[in-house]
Amino acid sequence: MDENSTATVRFIGQKEEDAQQLSWLLSNASNAQFSFEHVACLDSFVNTGRDQQGEVIILDLTESTEDRINAVSLLGEKIPLIPVVVLTGDDEKVGRDAIRLGAQDYLIKSQLTTDGISRSLLNAIQRHQGHQRSAETAPLLDSATAVLNRLPIGVILVTADSKILFFNGKAKRYLEQGDGLVVGSDRVCRATLPGESRALAKLLADTLSPSDENKSEGDFAISLTRMESDYPLNVMVAPIGTGVAGKGAVLFVSDPAEPVDLSVDSICKLYGLTPAEGRLALGLTNGYKLDDLAEEWGVSMHTVRSQLRQIFRKTDTSRQSEVVKLILTGPAALQATSLL
């Protein structure tokens, strides 16, 4: 919540002097506008209260602790959308017990200040809203994770500073092998070799930089050496994310020894490509570079670049990494689930 936030505070407790003290302290808050109500009867409030956004309860636990602490669970059951902050005496154990029962925070009566109360209440509202969103979106996130785990290539989502946010089942296998790509206790994704690790970090930074429009397509891919395999891990980087979450990237990781067995015919039908263009798109998806594909097929670089331009035009993309992302998150990739 920002400085223009408003919130309704309902104090549930029998002591009028406590209500007056809390009301006065909150009236001096500079980071939000609080309205204050004193509710003397808990049972009446539970029976008539309604969930509303921007409300928070301060529950008095300074007296009759054993009876009142059960009210934390009761409020969570009857009015689940309103966060609860408890007011305790000097025994912090009461506050910790209340948090275990569902309270968002606790305030110690002898340590009350305007800044401390307002910060606690605003944070309680924000955390509670976050918990509600998590519960509501959990099934959707589970479904999305299941789809990513079905993809026949490694997918790693990272922040701008290379910290891993998510990896699918295929990527987990590569990371657990610790050969080519590794993840440390700091959650940073690195290459096994220090020089390649620096190159990977630079590749990520360059991918997320919008200033340089003259980079070639090869500048968004890297091959990482593996000690236990004759084949490298091929990594292609594509930018994702905007807004509050900030910039990040998706790393598509493939093993040339385990080519993605997608249907060229399906790719052609889905995106209106010719057979030659579909073959090139699949080659890129498997992590091959343009010059390697040109040499393998016995055609000129001019030919494959011309085909690539047609792929860009037909798929409304401008980078090889965007083509790979399009194919790997589309229907064609899900047809290869039997490989996992």
What is the residue-mean pLDDT, rounded to a whole number?
Answer: 82
Cα radius of gyration in angstroms: 28 Å
Looking at CATH, the homologous superfamily of the largest domain is Response regulator
Helical content stands at 40-55%
GO molecular function, one term: DNA binding
Organism: Sneathiella sedimenti
Keywords: DNA-binding
Protein name: DNA-binding response regulator
Outline the structure in words.
The chain is α/β, with parallel strands linked by helices and 340 residues long. It has helices at residues 16-27, 42-48, 65-78, 92-100, 114-150, 169-177, 194-208, 264-271, 275-285, 290-297, 301-315, 320-328, 331-334, and strands at 6-12, 33-39, 55-60, 84-88, 105-108, 154-159, 164-167, 181-183, 189-191, 221-224, 233-240, 248-254. Helix 9 packs across helix 11 (301-315) and helix 9 (275-285) packs across helix 12 (320-328). Residues 336-340 have low confidence and may be disordered. The strands form 3 sheets. Strands 2-1-3-4-5 form a 5-stranded parallel β-sheet, with helices on both faces. A 5-stranded antiparallel β-sheet has the order 7-6-12-11-10, with helices on both faces. It is 46% helix and 19% strand. The chain is built from 13 helices and 12 strands. Strand 10 (221-224) and strand 11 (233-240) form a beta hairpin. It has 3 domains: 6-138, Rossmann fold (3-Layer(aba) Sandwich); 152-258, 2-Layer Sandwich (Beta-Lactamase), CATH 3.30.450.20; 261-340, Arc Repressor Mutant, subunit A. This is DNA-binding response regulator. One of its GO terms (molecular function) is DNA binding.
